[in-house]
Structure formats: structure tokens, C-alpha cells
Amino acid sequence: MPMKNILIYDIVSDSWLINNTTGNEIEGRTGHTAVMTTDKRIIVYGGLNILRPAFPYLAVLDTSKIPYEWSAPTEENSIGPITEHSSIIIKNYMITAFGRNLSERDYTKYDIKDVYKLNISNPLSYKWSLLATPNNQYNSVDNNSSIFDSINTKTDGVSVRWIVTIIVIVTAVIFLLILIIHKIIQRKTCFRSNTLNTSIDNQSSIKD
After folding, report:
1. Structure pTM?
2. What is the CA radius of gyration of the chain?
3. pLDDT tens digits along 2-24
4. Phi and psi for 79 in degrees, rounded to 5?
5. What are the record keywords, sorted (predicted)?
6. Does 189 have pLDDT greater than 90?
7. β-sheet with 93-97: strand ranges across
8. What are the backbone angles phi and psi of residue 69, rounded to the nearest 5°?
9. Which CATH class is domain 5-141?
10. Residue 193: enclosing H or E segment and its boundaries?
11. Is the pLDDT assigned to residue 96 strictly greater than 80?
């Protein structure tokens, strides 16, 4: 069944609505991914239509238009029909990983191990390229910097801040314990001194 009619859930009225779409005819599917860009494009990729790959592999629903409009943009370096994969949006890229390659006949290559990136900056043309391989080797995304580098840098920054915070807290606790112990010792010393003085005074009174 083509996806001409889209079900929309209204969280305000707690009700379902049917939205009729225009544009290209997009086959219904399961096992696909759907992610939304900042400019209100929903990018649908992969999936199965009954027992065969859904067509087109890449479909885009423009929700900035009323009614919503489907399109099947050109796809450079296609990674082929896949299903049961995962996709997320990072900046101008859709990152896709895992899943199964429906065009692969070799069982050992059926499960996808590589991570791919799809450049979505041009709404009319999308380009796939390899992002990472199983041995954690990854390619540059743009400006000679990797998405993973950005994530790792943020993670490292958070780790450093946590380490510094823990050191400060531990130092403060140790200082507080030392201060408390010092006060306790000081009080005990004063108490013993007062007790000794009282004893001496009592002995002096007895002698007198």
C-alpha cells in the first residue's frame, strides 16, 4: 500500500488525524527508519514491503508544506536496500548503522557492520559515504573533522570536569575531617588541662 495517507497523532486533543499527501508514490514498509531534519523534512530509508525491499529506498516527506509532499530525491553511492537498521540526524548528516543488507546473498555479509553517513544538506540530492568500519576507523565528515571527534571531545571535556569536581570535593572533605579532628583533640586537651588544674587546687586546699 502506498503511503498517501499519513496518520498524525494530536497530543493536545489526544486524537488521531488522517493527512492526505501529494508528490511521489512511496510504498508502505516495515523495518525502515524515519528521522526529522531541522527544516521539517522526514527522511525515510530502507524497509520491507511484504517480502521484498520497499521502493524507493530513500523517500522524503516535506512537512513544511500543506498538504505534506513526498519526494524521491537522487541518491549518490547508494548503500542499497537495508532493513532493521538504526538512523539518527547529526547536523547535516543522517548516520545509519547496523541492520541487514537485503541485496547481499553471502550470509557472512548479510549483517551490516559498517556505519554510513548520508549528506542531507541538498534537499534535491543526497550522497552516501562510509563513516566507520568495525575496527573503529572512521572518515572525515567536513572541514577535516569527524563527527566522532566532536562527540569524543565533548565526552573528554565532561570527563575532565567530573575529575576536577571529584578532586575538589574529596579535598574539601579531607580538610573538613582534619578540622573536626583538630577541634576534638583541642577540646580533649583543654578538658584534661582543666581537670588537672582542678585536681591540683583540691590537693592544695587539703594541705592547707
Report:
1. 0.65
2. 34
3. 789 998 999 999 999 999 999 99
4. -90, 5
5. Membrane, Transmembrane, Transmembrane helix
6. no
7. 74-76, 125-132, 115-119, 93-97, 86-90
8. -125, 130
9. mainly beta
10. helix 147-207
11. yes
Residue 143 pLDDT = 44
- Cell numbers 588541662 correspond to what residue? 193
d(CA 175, CA 169) in angstroms, rounded, equals 10
CA distance 63 to 180: 65
Give the containing element (helix H, strand E) for 189: helix 147-207
At 171 the three-state DSSP class reads: helix
Distances, alpha carbon 46 to alpha carbons 38, 63, 129, 179, 201, in Å? 21, 20, 16, 65, 97
What CA–CA distance (Å, rounded) separates 147 from 132? 11
Give the residue extent of every domain in the chain: 5-141, 146-208
- Rounded CA gap, 30 and 25, in Å? 16
Per-residue pLDDT tens over the stretch 108-158? 557 898 999 999 999 999 999 999 988 765 554 444 344 545 545 444 455
Read off the C-alpha cell for 144: 577535516
How far, in Å, are 34, 140, 149 from residue 28 at the CA level? 13, 34, 37
CB 28 within 8 A of CB 77: no
Distance (Å, whole) CA 99 – CA 31:
9
Do 193 and 201 contact (CB within 8 A), yes or no?
no
